[in-house]
Known about the structure:
There is one protein chain. A hairpin with a 3-residue loop joins strand 3 (40-48) and strand 4 (52-58). This protein has a 7-stranded mixed beta sheet, with helices on both faces. The radius of gyration is 30 Å and the shape is elongated. Helix 13 (328-345) packs antiparallel against helix 27. The protein is built from 31 helices and 11 strands. It is an alpha/beta fold.
Amino acid sequence: MAGNIKIALVGNPNTGKSTLFNLLTGLNQKIGNFPGITVDKKLGYCKLPGDRQAEITDLPGTYSLYPKSKDERIVLQVLADSNNPSHPDIVVVVADATNLRRNLLLYTQVADMGIPTVLALNMTDMAKKEGIDINVNKLSERLGIQVVPISARSNTGMDLLKQAINNTTRIATQAEGTDLHLMAPEAVEAAKKVLKTDNGYLALQLLHQHEPLSIFSAEQHVSLEEIKKVHHFESSKLQAAETIARYRYLGTVLSGVIEDTGAVRKFAISDGLDAVLTNRFWGFLIFIAILFFIFNSIFSWSTYPMDMIEYAFVWLTEYGHQHLPDGLLTNLLLDGVVAGLGGVVIFIPQIAILFAFISILEDTGYMARVTFMMDKVMRKFGMSGKSVVPMIGSLACAVPSIMSARNIESWKDRIITIMVAPLVSCSARLPVYTLLISLVVPQKMLWGFINLQGLTLMGMYVISILAAVFVAFIMKFMIKAREKSYFIMELPVYRMPRWTNVLYTMYEKSKTFVFEAGKVIIAISIVLWVLATYGPSERFEAIDKKYAAIEAKKDSLQVSTLERDKAAERLENSYAGILGHVIEPAIRPLGFDWKIGIALITSFAAREAFVGTMATIYSVDNDGEVATIRNKMRGARNPDTGLPVFTFATAFSLMLFYAFAMQCMSTVAIVFRETKSWKWPVIQLVYMTGMAYVASLIAYQLLK
Length: 704
């Protein structure tokens, strides 16, 4: 096959498909959406022998071409539509060699779509350890395609796979998976004429599920429905018959291909671990201990790199003020852009550590066990076990987690999950929590090994999870639905994490945090710097006259603090200060002043903007001294009482506000896109803001 080619990776969940995708494409990949659909599209590029380039699309994992969710439907849409931008020249089906019979069911369906296919047998090293010996040559001969044994985790077989792709012709060579002529032959022949295709299995698939596909005209949809009525096309019965026929065919194909070498400890280790890790009592204790270790590590391990980054930005600001000419442009660059950027970059170590742990838990197979353990608990609160995946995913970001709720078949369970997922503290809240905790919680160890700040951070995450469960329980009685939900999930075998994959995840997520959050925060910082630097001319003229008179008196006590007092008064009378004072009466009962009020407003674009806002405000409100944002906030004083602004009561009240408030426009947008209605995001915005206000009010009034 000459020239560049398009490849689609297809496979069951947990077959290592995404690991293979990362291995083939490395950093040469991007994330987008499939056209017209809010489903992640992972697209990457790799070099093949002969200097050819392959465009690789990682399609969502699915057990069958008969989808149970929106994500799974994408596979058929891409394979069935030759005009789809992701329609492949070659399909690489990734199969788990330790469970070949089940994995090959999907292969036979994909092969019958008539696209040239290569079978990648992944985890062959694990199969050998479990006593499974596969005769690859015999399997290849019976299927009529190239079969390549690989191990994505140990990076073996990649060259063979690339060579196999390179050698694949444009003519599909695979053997027909089953006798399709026995399945509604008259209906299939009629559908082939309507669809103008020679592929009988494609026609059969589209008779089953043409409704969600937009590639056909209204007349074609009507014609297909008419064919189903005329020929008494019973979809559920035919799907069951097809599955039975395919497994019968696979029994013939695999006869003499798979040999059990007699290893008796195949699943002994996995079963032994499950007996403890999924135990009703010990399983939950171990999960809590793991969470505690993670949050303790986030604080303990990130201290030194965060301090280095923080002081690097202090040095940069100081150096800039010393060597750049005085003026508005320098102040904008250093006190606006650099200060805002510093508020983002400083949290890279903590973000990287959080995502490293999440990646390890997923890679080892433990995250699936947590989902299994939580199923019975979640059902009592109006959700299913599948709701745990979006809930745990929300520790990273609510947006993809809400999108992943498509896998929940029950409409009620799905809506409740979408409505409560943003309550789980995401990585965007982490910078807010860590900044405030570092101000009011001493950095000391309890009993020699428990970091007090890490314990406080874990407490904030636990509070957010309990709040999500509580709200879900209330919605269980408020949202009515007749359908019953069910939970089916395959537990993957335990594996060692692939460390290169963990490192890649840390890099990718940190980069996304910096570039996505950074763009918003820097834009806000620039706007905020302008608002905090300028104000009504009559107010600024009055301030200049006032301090000119004080300087003329040459009172040593007043002159010593003149620059600091003047900067503070100019900030208070700037446009930002005026805006903060407008909302101050509403937030004063929560322990917040007008400066915090400005941060609350800017945070509705993105929660992490709080840190950049504080950095900008306290950079504008200074007397020429360059200090870290934490030191500036620690030294802030209430002008009326002289007490610190950020007391424990204020900081805890502020953390609760950020824990519960819907301060993320991206989440509002994705809830609208997923529910196709403004009703749910508006309800979400109102109830979460109300929760945040009430919780902050109670906390401050009790603790002040």
